[in-house]
Design brief:
Layout: H1 9-18, E1 32-36, H2 47-57, E2 61-65, H3 90-100, E3 103-107, H4 128-142, E4 153-156, E5 172-176, H5 182-190, E6 196-200, E7 205-206, E8 219-220, H6 235-251, E9 254-255, E10 263-264, E11 273-280, E12 287-293, E13 299-301, E14 303-307, E15 312-315, E16 319-321, E17 326-334, E18 351-355, E19 358-365, E20 368-374, E21 379-384, E22 393-395, E23 398-399, E24 403-405, E25 410-415, E26 424-430, E27 438-441, E28 445-447, E29 451-458, H7 461-466, E30 467-470, E31 476-483, E32 486-492, E33 502-509, E34 512-522, E35 525-530, E36 534-537, E37 540-543, E38 548-551, E39 557-565, E40 571-578, E41 582-585, E42 589-593, E43 597-607, E44 613-623, E45 627-635, E46 642-646, E47 655-659, E48 663-667, E49 675-680, E50 685-686, E51 701-705, E52 708-712, E53 717-722, E54 727-733, E55 745-747, E56 750-758, E57 761-767
Parallel strand pairs: 1-2, 1-6, 2-3, 3-4, 5-6, 28-34, 38-45
Antiparallel strand pairs: 7-8, 9-11, 10-14, 11-12, 12-17, 13-16, 14-15, 17-18, 18-21, 19-20, 20-26, 21-25, 22-23, 22-26, 24-25, 27-29, 29-32, 30-33, 31-32, 33-34, 35-39, 36-37, 39-43, 40-42, 40-44, 41-43, 44-45, 46-47, 47-48, 48-49, 49-50, 51-52, 52-53, 53-54, 54-57, 55-56, 56-57
Helix pairs in contact: 2-3, 5-6
Length: 768
């Protein structure tokens, strides 16, 4: 692209919309939005994935408690680095937040039922001396991580003096992400413009061993499953996160004004429908109307709002709000201030008159005005301009006609209904050809730890010579001139970046930002095992880390390794595995795959001299990506049952497993030896409820005895056997077994039979 010409305007708009950044320059909002992340209830291997997801949707603050009794696994022993349990790695959590540019909000909370009474802060419990010592130690460990020292810890709630950080703004409104009325509740809070919004129940969590009462489910429901799959209930969170990311600075100054109430065009609002107009403290900063529909019917109507530039009421177009929905609509929002940091070229009179879709962000680049909306239904936006736009107009990725009022210099732009959980849609209108322009060309993704080629284009050789590339912290780049108006940059992405994170780049000339790119970061390749063991909580699944695969040592099995090439180019990989006592065929597999594609590589594995049980192994990936991945092999001879222990949920406490070639039963050494899952391996279905079975209180000691598991307490001994030839689990106890909670069940042609031979003995059989 050698210059800016009318004939190439459409191409410029497309390039701009493809690279529209999701983040404007961060403000320091008084209105704080945070997501609660109970790290001690979440597998450590998944922390990075979920925190990157939170940042991606627009969350800037992560809240969590730091339970002192969780970090003291033994009397006098404190662990903040995860040496005794991966989930105790508080230092690692803070490091992740810092690297991602997220803020931390430390909260008081009761971590374990019975340890601290419900609702009482952890530092207000009975053992004040121990907790005082703990707080002093914690303060020393985290003192360098507070925001005043450049760290991520911005707020500390309920523990004055622990760290040099203020409490979060009050009042604090807590909203469950699983609440069907979450969007309405949060928007009602926005009307105050003050305080903090805390999202709870966002993540589906699994408690560490020993934390639950006997009848409690082990899994705490959330809007995001352990697999990372989002449920529909994430939509309000996504919308609020995208809205507050840019409106929070204005919202903290916005209040209703007496005499400027929103009024319907005819009659009154239906029951359950309300609207309020909020005005910024600076009269030139504009206003917004919050519309909430708590009824079970969609609302459509016109109403009067106050229009500050003309100092009179203005009738809106028909506004549509779905049942149980809400909208945040701009009124007289100036382009030269407010949301847009790059709109200084607009005069003070140019503004967004009104919109019937929820405005989230405004940006201006290379002569193109871009706006991002959340639009559950189609709407429109009306602009007051000082000149006629040169066009074209793109809405939702399509060229669209717009109306221009030559007399009043107003543009009326249609906004199509958005897609996805946040009903997101963006539009772009070419305002005028700029004197100079700069673009990123086909910039989409970057590989972590690699040199990446980022191409840029300029409207003149003089502009290219004066330009520079602004990089995120820790990135480096080497320019390579491709032509007088084109420069390629070899960008080095630091190896410590997180997979899925985003990085912002900008082209600058004479101190003026021109082109921008918001690029996602990926590992060169992603690897997973197909058919690896998963831990089940009812119907829910948790991937086990490191991966665990079961094989028949004599017959062997195919070890299916799924490789995803995250590079946009064709890449070659080699795959090899090693484990003492096992052979893999082929010894090394070569595979070539296209850009951003996935392929499965099969390695045949069988035992050479390995005995039955669990064995450590390693997978080596070479070629376009270098990676060494640990995994485990469980050798299960035909007709036999293997008993072993492994930490399947990553809480630092191993589970105990009985497994043959048909079924797998998993038990805890806590909760009285709770039976966690009973899985038919061919289908992967679990036949136990989410709370498991045989749950009691307190820990038990477990040992392997003659291929069975023996659970011991001071009051009883329980022996559990899984027959080698079929899927019959026998439980025998020296005292009467607890009351039966399992019932016969049939799923996918597999039946669970339950029989009590006596008060001390029970049989549980899975059969086809």
């Amino acid at each position: 692209m050698s210059g800016y010409r009318s004939a190439t305007m459409i191409t410029c708009v497309w390039l701009f919309l493809a690279a529209l950044p999701a983040a404007a320059q961060q403000r320091a909002p008084e209105y704080v939005q945070a997501v609660e992340f109970p790290y001690y209830r979440y597998p450590r291997a998944l922390w990075e994935r979920e925190l990157v997801w939170m940042k991606t949707v627009g969350i800037q603050t992560v809240a969590f408690s730091i339970p002192w009794n969780w970090h003291q696994p033994q009397p006098g022993v404190t662990d903040l680095t995860g040496s005794t349990s991966p989930r105790r790695d508080l230092v690692g959590l803070v490091r992740i937040l810092r690297r991602l540019g997220l803020r931390a909000w430390i909260r008081p909370a009761s971590p374990v039922k019975g340890w601290v009474h419900s609702g009482v802060p952890v530092w207000a419990a009975h053992d004040r001396q121990a907790q005082r010592r703990w707080l002093e130690e914690l303060g020393k460990t985290l003192s360098s991580q507070v925001a005043s020292h450049g760290g991520p810890i911005a707020f500390v709630e309920g523990a004055p003096g622990m760290l040099d950080a203020p409490p979060p703004p009050a009042p604090i409104a807590s909203v469950s992400a699983t609440n069907p009325a979450a969007l309405i509740r949060t928007r009602e809070g926005f009307a105050s413009g003050k305080g903090s919004l805390l999202w709870e129940d966002v993540e589906e969590t699994v408690a560490p061993a020993g934390w639950q009462s006997p009848g409690d489910p082990l899994l705490h429901a959330g809007a995001v499953e352990l697999s990372g799959q989002e449920r529909a209930t994430t939509a309000p969170l996504r919308r609020d996160a995208a809205l507050l990311k840019h409106w929070a600075g204005l919202l903290s100054t916005m209040k209703p004004r007496s005499g400027h109430e929103v009024k319907p065009a005819a009659g009154k609002f239906p029951e359950g429908v309300s609207a309020v107009q909020l005005f910024a403290s600076d009269p030139a900063a504009g206003s917004a109307v919050s519309v909430v529909n708590q009824s079970d019917k969609p609302y459509r109507g016109e109403f009067y709002v106050y229009y500050p530039p003309a100092q009179h009421r203005m009738l809106t177009p028909p506004i549509e709000v779905p049942a149980g929905g809400a909208l945040w609509l701009p009124v007289a929002l100036p382009l030269a201030a407010g949301l847009c940091k790059e709109c200084s070229v607009f005069s003070n009179e140019e503004h967004i008159i009104q919109a019937t879709a929820e405005l989230q962000d405004v940006e201006f680049e290379n002569g193109i005005l871009a706006m991002e909306f959340s639009a559950p239904v189609a709407g429109e936006v009306v602009l007051q301009l000082s000149r006629q736009p040169s066009g074209p107009y793109l809405a939702g990725g399509k060229l669209t006609e717009f109306d221009w009022d030559e007399k009043n210099f107003r543009a009326r732009l249609p906004v199509p209904a958005g897609k996805g959980p946040g009903s997101r849609v963006r539009v772009g209108l070419a305002i005028e050809p700029p004197e100079a322009s700069a673009f990123f060309v086909d910039a989409t993704r970057l590989l972590i730890g690699r040199k990446n080629l980022v191409s840029t284009s300029y409207s003149s050789p003089e502009l290219a010579a004066r330009s520079r590339l602004r990089l995120p912290e820790g990135f480096t780049a080497r320019p390579v001139s491709k032509s007088p108006t084109e420069i390629d940059y070899e960008v080095d992405v630091p190896a410590e970046c997180y997979h899925g994170d985003w990085a912002d780049f900008a082209l600058e000339a004479d101190g003026v930002p021109m082109g921008r790119a918001h690029l996602q970061l990926f590992r060169p390749a992603s690897v997973r095992f197909s058919g690896a063991v998963k831990l089940h909580f009812g119907a829910n699944e948790l991937e086990v880390q490191p991966p665990l695969v079961a094989i028949d040592p004599k017959a062997g099995r195919n070890l299916d390794v799924v490789i995803r090439n995250n590079s946009p180019q064709i890449q070659n990989f080699s795959v090899a595995a090693e484990a003492q006592g096992f052979q893999f065929m082929p010894a090394k597999a070569e595979v070539s795959m296209g850009g951003v594609m996935e392929r499965t590589v099969s390695l045949r594995v069988f035992a050479d001299s390995a005995e039955a049980g669990v064995h450590e192994a390693k997978l080596h990936l070479a070629g376009a990506a270098e990676m060494e991945m640990p995994f485990r092999i469980v050798a299960i001879p035909r007709g036999r049952t293997v008993a072993y222990s492994a930490d399947l949920d990553g809480d630092g406490a191993p589970e105990w497993v009985l497994e043959n070639q048909k079924a797998r039963a998993v038990f805890s050494a806590q909760d009285g030896g709770r039976w966690l899952e009973y899985v038919w391996k061919d289908s992967g279905l679990n036949y136990l409820p989410e709370s498991g079975a045989f749950a009691g209180t307190g820990p038990v000691t477990v040992r392997v005895a003659d291929g069975a598991l023996e659970f011991n307490t001071a009051n009883w001994t329980r022996t559990v056997r899984l027959s080698g030839s079929d899927a019959t689990l026998t439980v025998e106890q020296t005292s009467p077994l607890p009351a039966e909670t399992l019932k016969p069940l049939k799923q996918n042609e597999i039946t669970l039979d339950v029989s009590r031979e006596s008060a001390n003995r029970a049989n549980y059989t899975l059969r086809k």
